[in-house]
């Protein structure tokens, strides 16, 4: 197990965004955080990455508590729908990731090719389309050296071909031992791509495990035959 | 600044990368280029009109040359020329600072950068360094005016010019500190801009109340940016003012750093901000007890003649002055600026008390005792109504039983009259500088792309 998340809660005034969220992340797996819009996926990622303060909750790795400062050496979070350094070129952003965020320089060229960024290298980030920006953000995340990478909606804004190519690239990095924790609201896409899942609904964890484990949980919950369709499982558990 | 890229070159430190990033962001910022562009015409108008006036009072076009003898370039040329920096610091620089500090939050870059783990104080220090460098570049037009003035044959006294430039650099620092704090405290840059300008307007209100109310308002007004700049414009360097400005700059940057930490609970950030506020207030209060000051003006416009200063230093007994003059009475302004401000520099233990029933003093004129200035030196008292430096010194000498020192004609500042028109200044400040800024802006932005 890479790390364990216990009892994360977060309120925005009267709205309870996260409620006693607990799960664990295994080293080298592709873990999907599944939930509808507004389930609290981005909030959970931001709390885990220390970008947003949580009201309660802690993380443990190797049985030891992980403080807020130490989290930056354990995980890196790539937010959705941001356009960082809009006036700077893609090339500079990648170099800055390596220089400032202590990224892995040897992977630079490989990631540029995997995410088809070479034609965009001299374009400023502010002028990129949504899908192009998403690829740049993924490249930034993949360049970082933290063992766990949290990506918010990795396939958002990508067309079918791009989504398949990027899924292959992410898989290649996971195969080398990088742990990927992906927030995905399209359950079908998540089912094809992730090893295990954390189901989140209205800020609560409804289930955690592989499709089979979740199906068994749903069957036990409803007293029906197990069904291995993740969408059906999700509906049964939420 | 150009850092090595990762295409086979060695890597720089995270700090240098951040410096590179902030410098690039400054160069990419239209607000900074507008500031640079605007500085040329602003300085040009001030410099050209100042040199013309200086030339006229120095005897150009047949006017009397006698007045020119009292003119110093600091008051006649440099104070108005550098006043363009004051305008820019209030109305243009805040937007440059807000763009640089709030831009990261707006674009989402802050969420990526804070995961690096670098101290927010180091991060805001880098931003402040780049902004100060940017402000220094914006100050090139008034600095280039010095070369122009020298080419006309004008006299330059470096200590007073350095003082003036440092004053405007500090004023820029105050704007940067304030704008950085507001940018971090608020969610949106436009809110930060409104709050920054509101604080500036607030300091003007303090100045206004200080002028009409006197008392604590007057003391507080002495530490506003406008008052600080006015002192530097007269070549006066006061340790308390400089340290107060530095404390305020650091407090602003500290607040900005605290509120940059998005992952810290808001209540904790509020408590830390309150702590910084208390620390800054305590430091400023302590600074007000520091009395050292230096008159760097060639004309010694903040000092009595040296012989008088030596005589005054020999008077050990505490001197107390009670002036029955209202805050808005012009005689009180004369007394304060021509005599008491100079006296405080020589006699730090001087106690001054203003007594008045109203702020303008118009209907107090008929009251017995209004306009009187009482001097108390070790129990001996005397009264005078004179508000000139000579009158005040005369009263003090008579009370102390000290013979006034003889006047030293050679030590009197005679000024540097210069009756030349501002040739070439229009071309430089209205055409060459703006053109240079436009071309540099286009080239720099192209290079980055």
The biggest beta sheet of chain B is recorded as: 4 strands, mixed
If strands are numbered along the chain, what order do they take across the biggest sheet of chain A?
6-7-8-3-9-10
Side by side, the strands of the main sheet of chain B go 4-3-5-6
Amino-to-carboxy terminus distance of chain B = 15 Å
Rg of chain A, alpha carbons: 18 Å
CATH homologous superfamily placement of the largest domain in chain A: P-loop containing nucleotide triphosphate hydrolases
Unreliable segments of 5+ consecutive residues of chain A: none
User: For the terminal residues of chain A, how far apart are their CA atoms?
Assistant: 26 Å
Largest sheet of chain A: 6 strands, mixed
The second-level CATH architecture of the largest domain in chain A is 3-Layer(aba) Sandwich
The succession of helices and strands of chain A, N to C, reads EEEHEEHEHHHEHEHEEHH
Average pLDDT level of chain B: 90
Order of helices and strands of chain B: HHHHHHHHHHHEHHEHEHEEEHH
What gyration radius of chain B follows from the Cα positions, in whole Å?
25 Å
CATH top level of the largest domain in chain A?
Alpha Beta
Features:
heterodimer, A: 238 residues, alpha/beta, Rossmann fold, 2 domains, six-stranded mixed β-sheet, four-stranded antiparallel β-sheet, 9 helices, 37% helix, globular, B: 449 residues, mainly alpha, four-stranded mixed β-sheet, two-stranded antiparallel ribbon, 6 strands, 64% helix, 6% strand, disordered N terminus
Describe this structure in words.
The complex is a heterodimer of chains A (238) and B (449). In chain A, strand 7, helix 6 and strand 8 form a beta-alpha-beta unit. Chain A has two domains: 135 residues, Rossmann fold; 61 residues, no CATH class. The mean pLDDT of chain A is 92. Chain A starts with a strand and ends with a helix. In chain A, the strands form two sheets. A six-stranded mixed beta sheet of chain A has the order 6-7-8-3-9-10, sandwiched between helices. The radius of gyration of chain A is 18 Å and the shape is globular. Chain A is built from nine helices and ten strands. By secondary structure, chain A is of the alpha/beta class. In chain B, 64% of the residues lie in helices and 6% in strands. In chain B, helix 12 packs antiparallel against helix 13. The longest helix of chain B is centred in the N-terminal third of the chain and has 28 residues. In chain B, the strands form two sheets. In chain B, strands 4-3-5-6 form a four-stranded mixed beta sheet, covered by helices on one side. A two-stranded antiparallel sheet of chain B has the order 1-2. The two termini of chain B are 15 Å apart. Chain B has 17 helices and six strands. Chain B has 449 residues and is mainly alpha-helical. In chain B, helix 15 links the parallel strand 3 and strand 4. The N terminus of chain B is likely disordered. At the A-B interface, strand 6 and helix 3 of A face helix 1 and helix 5 of B.
